[in-house]
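Thread: CRAL-TRIO domain-containing protein, structure

OP (GT): Posting the sequence first so everyone is looking at the same thing. Length is 285 residues per the record. Can we get the structure tokens written out before standup tomorrow? I want them in the notebook alongside the other entries.
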Amino acid sequence: MSKSNTSSTLNISLVSNGEVNRMMTSLSSKEDAEDYYEWGDEVKNLSREWVRAIMSQPYSRNKQKRRPFDYSRKKVIEYLLWRKREDITSKIEHHMNSDGSDIARLTTGPGSLYWHGVDSEGSPILWYHADKTCFDSAVVKNEIECSSLIIQAGLDAMSGKTYRFNFIICFDVFNPLKAMKNPNLAPAFIKLFMKICPDRLKWAYMVTGSIGHMFYKVASTLASASIMHKVIETRSRGESARMMIRDGVISNDEVPIFMGGKYVHDKEITLNFPTMIRSITVAMA
């Protein structure tokens, strides 16, 4: 799918600051929500621009209209409840003040998922390498916890008008037989992604090669249309790199070695959680 085919033709009116203020006030009001105490202390962690983006999207039942206020509010509350249930704020703070080894022990594929660099507009880039994932020995619960911490810490590091990110997925090199021994891992990640990243994805470039297309099909089945609308499947890493240069995601000098370039992703950033988050925070500043 190309970008030219994914641009929306709808004239969705912009969400005003007043509407965003109303939403934030509603979410922060103890009187307006019986279950406020289940998630209220997480409201302060919300990005106003992300809330604006959620409110501005076309309504699924009528694409010519924006989402109703209560519908958008429900989506935000579902996210806040997830944050509270997973105690994600405290966990991120804990791991940021550690040496990162606790997170490293959660995954059998260290360095498979990480933040590195920003695009020409300052939006961060999330990278995934299937060849670094030990599918057959991975514990789904642990891998999902590790992924949620990495992704959410990067999202929480955003400030100002930055609320979207790019996702580069290298799913062209891996052992399919081992991957099929753990069939629940990919669906669990997709469900996590939809829970914590609604309306945050800028563009995703998914390299599937000759064997990874089955995972693109899994994503197409489980992910929402609004997410898949922004996933560009390519057959080679070189093709993805060219598209990313064209779209301003990376420059010619930033094409990584594993995509045919000369740029090296620092191992300290890709493997160490506190270093990774501090690095992406500085890059977005």
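GT: Both are above now. Quick notes for whoever picks this up: Confidence is low (pLDDT under 50) at residues 4-12. The chain has two domains: 3-86, 92-284.
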